[in-house]
Amino acid sequence: TGSIGKNTLAVARHLSDTIKVTAIAAHSSLEELIPQIDEFHPEIVAVFDEKKANELRLLRPSVKVVSGEEG
Predict the structure, then answer these.
(1) Residue 66 in contact with residue 56, Cβ under 8 Å?
(2) Counting beta carbons within 10 angstroms of the beta carbon of residue 34, is it exposed (0 to 12), middle (13 to 18) or buried (19 or more)?
(3) What is the number of other CB atoms lying within 10 angstroms of the CB of residue 16?
(4) Chunked mean pLDDT (size 10), the chain, 71 residues
(5) Which spans in 1-71 are helix H?
(6) pLDDT at 71
(7) CA distance linking residue 71 with residue 67, whole number of Å
(8) CB 36 within 8 A of CB 9
(9) DSSP structural state of residue 43
(10) What does the alpha-carbon distance between residue 16 and residue 27 come to, in Å, rounded to a whole number?
(11) What value, to the nearest 5°, has the Cα angle with vertex 43 and ends 15 and 61?
């Protein structure tokens, strides 16, 4: 959800016919992360903040979410 990630997703959006986003990572910003999940449908999402990761698991139960050092 940071500047590098946003720029990478902009490139992925432009090349959506040739590449697929399989993972997205964020520290804690669900406000930015959820729209990215909804648009790119990654196989796995990493959220460093455990509390936010648990919140995301409730909001998007079909998404595999890892957190903390594992994520």
Answers:
(1) no
(2) middle
(3) 12
(4) 88 94 95 96 96 97 91 64
(5) 3-14, 30-40, 50-59
(6) 64
(7) 4
(8) yes
(9) S
(10) 25
(11) 130
Written as one letter, the residue type at 6 is K
> The pTM is what?
0.89
Half-sphere exposure of 9 (CA within 13 A, CB side): 21
- Strands of 64-67's sheet, edge to edge? 23-26, 44-47, 64-67
With contact defined as beta carbons under 8 Å apart, do 36 and 10 qualify? no
Q: Name the nearest CA neighbour of 67 among 52, 51, 55, 50.
A: 50
Which residues have a Cβ under 8 Å from the Cβ of 37 and sit 6 or more positions away?
Answer: 24, 45, 60, 63
